[in-house]
Design a protein that fits this description.
- The chain is an alpha/beta fold.
- The chain has two domains: 6-202, 2-enoyl-CoA Hydratase, Chain A, domain 1 (Alpha-Beta Complex); 206-254.
- The chain has helices spanning 30-43, 67-70, 74-81, 90-96, 116-122, 151-157, 160-169, 175-181, 191-203, 207-221, 225-241, 243-254; strands at 6-11, 14-19, 51-56, 105-109, 112-114, 126-129, 134-136, 173-174, 186-187.
- A six-stranded mixed sheet has the order 1-2-3-4-6-9, with helices on both faces. A three-stranded mixed sheet has the order 5-7-8.
- Helix 1 (30-43) crosses helix 4 and helix 10 runs antiparallel to helix 11.
- The longest helix has 17 residues, at 225-241.
- The model has no long low-confidence stretch (mean pLDDT 93).
């Protein structure tokens, strides 16, 4: 039986997904890849969840791929790498699956955030970091390119020349620099507290409109204006029918705090 390299706990509508290989600075092995993807997929249909927090146990968020462990089984590596009919292989799904969740995903970073770990947090919707955390697209050090799904979100949050500089050099930047570059959302001595403060703000809004907004923003990041406007109309029409929209509207008119039901969208 595989060790629990990923732990999931749900508290007050927030799912905490924790990388759990602290003895190796949460280095990524093949079991962790499978368990992270499984964790994300298990949360997708939970209508009571309002947000997901990604974090790392111990001294670091994630020091990147644990080559020694991961490459013990080269046949398994090859299976993970092949995409087949899917749009993403399992290594890529490791980071891209979080964008498919109908709730905001927030990464909490401390210590190291290297290589595959950085690609994982890039797949989150928000990233809060300690000032002294170390961030790096470290694949360049090994003569590789980032291949765990990170290049898509990298280009969403940073200019092309910055992405190329970091990916070509493997330069290590601090948490404060990550915010300046657009790679991180915010910096704090207590990034978990900052993350939960944002969650509380989001909880004040309809879970359906939050889910629809996430889908709308990501799908409109790329594609034609015609498709983007059509998608806006489609999603808004669904929001008009949502019971949580009625709750939000009535609470707003009465100047009361809304009490939403379960998410019905996404």
């Amino acid at each position: 039986m595989a060790e629990q390299n990923v732990l999931t706990a749900i508290e007050d509508g927030v799912a905490y997904v924790t990388l759990n290989r602290p003895e190796s600075l949460n280095g990524i092995d093949l079991d962790m890849v499978e368990q992270l993807v499984a964790a994300a997929e298990s949360l997708k249909d939970d209508q009571q969840i309002r947000a997901v927090i990604l974090r790392g146990e111990g001294r670091s968020f994630c020091a990147g791929l644990d080559f020694a462990s991961a490459f013990k089984d080269k046949k398994r590596v090859a299976r993970f790498f092949l995409a087949g009919p899917r749009k993403a292989n399992l290594f890529q799904k490791f980071s891209t699956v979080w964008r498919d969740l109908p709730v905001p995903v927030i990464a909490v970073v401390h210590g190291h955030c290297f290589g595959g770990g950085l690609q994982l947090v890039a797949g989150a919707d928000f990233r809060f970091t300690t000032p002294d955390a170390q961030w790096s697209i470290l694949e360049a050090k090994w003569g590789l390119v980032p291949d765990m799904g990170g290049t898509v979100p990298f280009l969403d949050v940073m200019p092309v020349d910055i992405v190329q500089r970091l990916a070509m050099t493997g330069e290590i930047v601090s948490g404060e620099q990550a915010v300046e570059l657009g790679l991180a959302t915010g910096v704090s001595d207590d990034p978990l507290a900052e993350s939960l403060a944002l969650v509380e703000q989001i909880k004040e809004r309809s879970p359906d409109s939050v889910a629809a907004t996430k889908q709308l923003i990501y799908r409109n990041t790329r594609g034609s204006e015609r498709r983007a406007l059509r998608r806006e109309r489609k999603l808004q029409s669904l929001m008009f029918k949502s019971p949580n929209t009625k709750i939000a509207r009535e609470a707003g008119m009465k100047k009361q705090s809304p009490v939403f039901g379960p998410r019905t969208f996404g």
